[in-house]
Amino acid sequence: MLKRERLMTILELVNEKGIVTVNDLIDRVNVSDMTIRRDLDELAASGKLIRIHGGAQSIESNASAELSHTEKKEIHINEKIAIAHKAATLLQNNDTVYIGPGTTLELMCKYIEGVQDLRVVTNSLPVFETLKDNQAIELTLIGGTYRERSGAFIGGLTSSTLSQFKFNRAFIGVNGIHNDSIMTASMEEGSSQAIALNNANQKIVVADYHKLNKDDFYKFYDLYDIDCLITNKEAAGEKVKHYQQYTEIIVSD
Prior knowledge:
Elements: H1 3-17, E1 19-21, H2 22-29, H3 33-45, E2 49-52, E3 55-58, H4 59-64, H5 69-74, H6 77-88, E4 96-99, H7 103-110, E5 118-122, H8 125-131, E6 137-141, E7 145-147, E8 152-154, H9 156-162, E9 167-173, E10 176-178, E11 181-184, H10 187-198, E12 200-206, E13 218-222, E14 228-231, H11 238-243, E15 248-251
Parallel strand pairs: 4-5, 4-9, 5-6, 9-12, 12-14, 14-15
Antiparallel strand pairs: 1-3, 2-3, 7-8, 10-11, 11-13
Helix pairs in contact: 6-7, 7-8
């Protein structure tokens, strides 16, 4: 198969499935792992697809549909790890914090160490599962209607319970940030996060740089009202200058 034909085949498969793995493509076009990765990098550089950890994602699926929790875990993993590390360093002794749904915040929970008398409240089942065996943390899971796509509990019960808590810090993940708008795919999920933010002394958004200048379905908060945005060092330059108009920007190491 000629290179041009191979690239067209890869692009067609990515656009058809939305997300494909390197192994899927190896089976389909019968070339080496290294060749597939080079092809994906070339297609990503030309703006025809989005390169993700272990594979690729179509431009269309990224713009129009919310990915599953499993799919989100595989996307931009290195960028998420970097900002998860940075977010965990903001925790202080005797904090009561809200940690919201999101794969980056799940990673953040893995890097919590050296903090004494920490109390964590969450409506995310994956966050709860990550922290439940940490004996140094007092952990509260807020129930409600389970949203499988994100692993979050949402709805009236969730919101009414969250409204009764006060937090030193609230850590929020997002699906997109565009100018002063903070967005997600679910109105109810966004509403519960807005309640947690309103009840926090320090409001923190944790978002890899791919989320900047990206829209999603529901705006649930203004970036003006956020205390800081943690993102990747790759956003340095014009993006950081732009978003510094709205809030403090903290970049990963």
